[in-house]
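Hi W., the zinc ion complex you wanted:
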Amino acid sequence: MPGVAQKPIGANFSRGGREGQRGLILHVQEGEGSLFEWSSEPSTRSSAHFWASQAGEIEQYVSVHDRAWTQRAGNAEWVSIETSGFAGKPLTTAQVDAVARVYAWGAREHGWPLEVTDSPKGRGLGTHAMGGGAWGGHACPGTARAQQREVIMSRVRTFRQT
Ligand SMILES: [Zn+2]
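Structure:
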């Protein structure tokens, strides 16, 4: 994605093998600070395509034409974004904007629909938790952040009008 910090990692993802572009999955970091070093460490065996800081900075670690190792069975069809902070706290306004920027780009470049979804077979802006056991059985990103998806989508719509 143009206009974001490109920090390609050398491990913890699979080249190609994508089976579609259903949309973007929202994750929570349960920590703070860039995930570049952590995602680059081979023993981590985990990654995401994007990361958004609480100040709204965006880093991209994996091309959306490749599979990040984020939500197991959902890796081939979905793109992933980690958000700095903790599940008990909502996204900052700057983070809402950052996720919306990534989504607006994906909508334009990859046809992601301007919708929120709670189904692994749906399309739109989803959550890690919606994938259940096949996606690792996580509660990620927590209720507070999951509920902000409509606000994020409203921001995406304003970007698309300009
Ligand atoms: Zn997650």
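Residues 27, 128, 138, 140 surround zinc ion (CB under 6 Å).

W.
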